[in-house]
Design a protein that fits this description.
ATP_PFK (chains A, B, C, D), Rossmann fold, four-stranded parallel beta sheet, homotetramer, cytoplasm (chains A, B, C, D), glycolysis (chains A, B, C, D), kinase (chains A, B, C, D), metal-binding (chains A, B, C, D), about 325 residues
């Protein structure tokens, strides 16, 4: 029989992402609407182990839906990767009367949620990461904002690249997953994109491409580089040496993690937050919420963590067709 | 046997929407990549009837992906609603060697495409409207940008409403479809939303809601009004009179139609533009491209025009739960 | 001998303006750095009369410099326009140990500050209004943000006006002072601007201008209308009837009052806030801070209120030259 | 007797800056209004020497006021630093009937204008640089946009720094002049700023500052670093090692050069462009336009190049007071 949940906790874990506050707000307000009590667990699993637990009321999440970051903060926690840490975490939940927890984060955070579930705490994961690198969902909280932030920055770089007839390498986030690079590649009309999923980095090919385009009268050459594919600054120097075309690198860095969330991130994060509460009310545990095939759905965490996803081939193809 | 297409035309019709330029660029570049010739038809069906037809090369669509509006312009055209006009349009296509046309617009524009198809011109429609009011697709070109524009404007109104403890009515676009209002309702945490699909406008209920919230200490009251549900300015006067709370109306108007498209609008419009060309190459006609259940798909225009869609009930429900 | 000030109050009064929070933060932090205590007076003079007075510490103004609105809120107050109200206000200051007050607002708010000064409370005014309509200063807190907000909205309207070959009337704020309209007139390349300072509104002249421009091939006609010069919606109808050119009105309204302040508004508001504290420390009273001839200066309030300023003629002239 | 000018040229030189297009548009339109002919000289002095000279009409500068970069492009030109190059440049001007030139750029570009003037071409310089590092003017075209771009990026970095309780180093432009760093220092409430003008970089002092702030409960530590003051990435590693606080570097790079200009940049660049034409009409030569003490003024180029300016001491002081 499903356990009845009366008090739930909510935490954010791993890298922060715009829209996490919208999700927190939705968890708190949906829970209160449905008659539950809510506790905020600060700084992810680290704060759980240190009992940084606060009561949350409807007004505590006023005026946060439009804010970047996470009001609950986040942190890494090595202690929670040990069986002792996990057990202690579950005991602290029980001590505070928390019988359900909503964990907002990425795959690593979901593994923590799995462990809490094994120790009898009902857990629901929400996909929160700017990288879109969670296989069980087509949407993750923060990706839409991050990709717009990167795109707007690259639009600006492009203005000056065109004025100076320069080659620009822009390094975007996504060490293991090139979605930000792919989307910006299409949206910014980049001449070249370097993705971890399509790793066949051939500098000579890029050099040839720049030289050909220059002959055809193209006034700029934009290269979008997912972090991790080589080192943008030294790449710029080598490309300039080989082509004779002035080449500069920009590393967008952590600005991609912040900023007021886009409408999609606010709406989807809110929907997912409400759904997490509804799943807890149905007695569900060890589940993650996702968005697939046009619907908000949920999966067993074990099943979700075993899924794989790749770069959509059609978009990869048109990305190259359209920048000609 | 499918007709082989060698030269295609592209036009934008109906109200303009951000991302139309990205779609035009994709049609032009994908077609050229695949060995086709491309003609731009200016000012929609009106320009077709007046033979405002220009050659389009890859460089003609350089540096437009980030621009609002449509470089091909758009116009209303009563003449094309008549059988004579439709036949003349098809003849002009043939005269210019155009054997396939991509029409970017809404349901009304698709009806025109249907007629061209009946007269032997292969046609593919792309959904372009900020209102999201096309039943055959979950995505329309321009909605994502428009809803972010509206949301950012409402964020600003909210700042000042809070400072003055004021009630604000913001009128957004969407005469027949309340998607912009619903999304902003969630994303801006609006206290009340008035949608055409949920038309049970009861001013007394809103008045009571304002008075209750004021007692509970809420410092502002945001009402989002889809255009067509009453008249915002006079509504503001009546609500102020009934509640004693200072109430102001803002009408966002046409600014929602413009602006540089968001990343999603650029990427999806580009993908749809490329797909339209691929469908023409496969010999398809009388089809519209859509996005459904997580995939880019296509439907027969007749079938698409017969579809219905409504406001998602779960989001309507949580919109009210979360603004408490 | 100058009175020594130990505890200061800060309030915002009149219409709110972006940058007021930056000014509040500067007052609080500069005062604490210099060894003073600070009290926040909520909701302007209304809150003063109701003793809504709170202690303010350095951390109370953390994370507000980037926020629109005013954390101290603002309100109209008829009671403070009476001698009884003014005396009561001064007594409440004394009761709370407040011997100096920084008033952030417009000319009306400065008149209140004058009265407090007469009753022995040292007062310094800071110019806070989006309208730039304070004669003693070339800069007012909020104008720079408001004019950028209006300009960005008009850029978007222009995209769609061009696509539809439409005439657009955009109503911006500034009932008595046309600075927002003038700046946007130049910055948006508007074809016509209607200002209260240059009131010779001749609709026939505008109609002729539209017709001439249409003949010369101009694809849009942007009219910027300072609120108060006629009624934009009915003007649109008359112009459409007279020219045959589709004409639409947009009323930007209160969104111009909100939003995160620009860099200039944050830097100048911060500098003025610090300077207000330094003036109080020097024993000054009945002064307003201004920015003139490239410097932050201060004037006697009586002198400041007697000043006049007009629209800069050179910019009015080039505005018309450059839109040709 | 002043030479009568009939045909003027306009060029942009050095690093590009947002607002240069507004200045070009103003030069072209003001000149045409006053009965002059206008030629665009592409790619600065390099394009002059290669006779890349085009006719410019009023409609050639339509729809560019809102665009970043420069439609005339810009380039470095070593040849023009030689007497032979300078003489050849003047001869090319004469050959094309150009008797006056408006040069938009920085001090280096003004030196070129000086040489053209010596060879009998009337020249007027307009200050165009994002760095504000021209001593004869309080305003340079592009600074206002660049500083807002940097500030908005740092706002986003701050969101995530707060969520992770991290130290962030943000490198902004300004190798020889720290104005962007100083303004962002105030506007973003940075805990530390490193400026070339205040060079007493003491890493131990920063380390101590971080440790003290951490004890006082500050959740983030933002360091703004003008490019050239050390190497941000290695600085981050050393600071993390010394403090134990996670520290990350972001290098904003060329995005600060692009983007749609702010209202101030559009209005001031337009005014300066018009004024340059008026000065040529008055027969002036070897002058630069500036903005000083609240007015648009002009100086002899030799005099302007000899001026010095420094960081405003009061703002430097309050920058440190207010971040406490």
């Amino acid at each position: 029989m499903a356990k009845e949940v009366k008090t739930i906790g909510v935490l954010t874990s791993g890298g922060d992402a715009p829209g996490m506050n919208a999700a927190i707000r939705a968890v708190v307000r949906q829970a209160i609407t449905k008659g539950l009590e809510v506790k905020g667990i600060k700084r992810g699993y680290a704060g759980l182990l240190q009992e940084e637990i606060i009561d949350m009321h409807a007004q505590d999440v006023s005026d946060i839906i439009q804010r970047g970051g996470t009001i609950l903060q986040t942190a890494r926690c090595m202690d929670f990767t040990t069986p002792e840490g996990q057990q202690k975490g579950a005991e602290i939940c029980k001590k505070h009367g928390i019988d359900g927890v909503v964990v907002i984060g990425g795959d690593g955070s979901f593994k923590g949620a799995q462990k809490l579930a094994e120790h009898g705490i009902n857990t629901i994961g929400l996909p929160g990461t700017i990288d879109l690198d969670i296989a069980s969902t087509e949407y993750t909280i923060g990706f839409d904002t991050a990709v717009n932030t990167a795109m707007e920055a690259i639009d600006k770089v492009r203005d000056t690249s065109t004025s100076h007839e320069r080659c620009s390498i822009i390094e975007v986030m996504g060490r293991g997953a090139g979605y930000i690079a792919l989307w910006c590649g299409i949206a910014n009309g980049a001449e070249d994109i370097l993705l971890p999923e399509k790793y066949n980095y051939d500098e000579q090919m890029i050099v040839n491409h720049i030289i050909e385009n220059r002959k055809r009268g193209k006034k700029h050459h934009i290269i979008i580089n997912a972090e991790g594919i080589g080192h943008s600054t030294s790449m710029a120097k080598r490309i300039e040496a080989a082509t004779g075309v002035e080449t500069r690198a920009t590393i967008l860095g952590h600005m991609q993690r912040g900023g007021s969330p886009t409408c999609k991130d606010r709406v989807y994060a809110s929907t997912m937050g409400a759904k997490a509460v509804d799943l807890l009310l149905e007695g569900k545990t060890n589940r993650v919420v996702g968005y697939r095939h046009g619907e908000f759905v949920d999966f067993d965490i074990d099943e979700a963590l075993a899924m794989q996803k790749g770069i959509p081939e059609y978009q990869w193809e048109i990305c190259r067709n359209l920048s000609k």
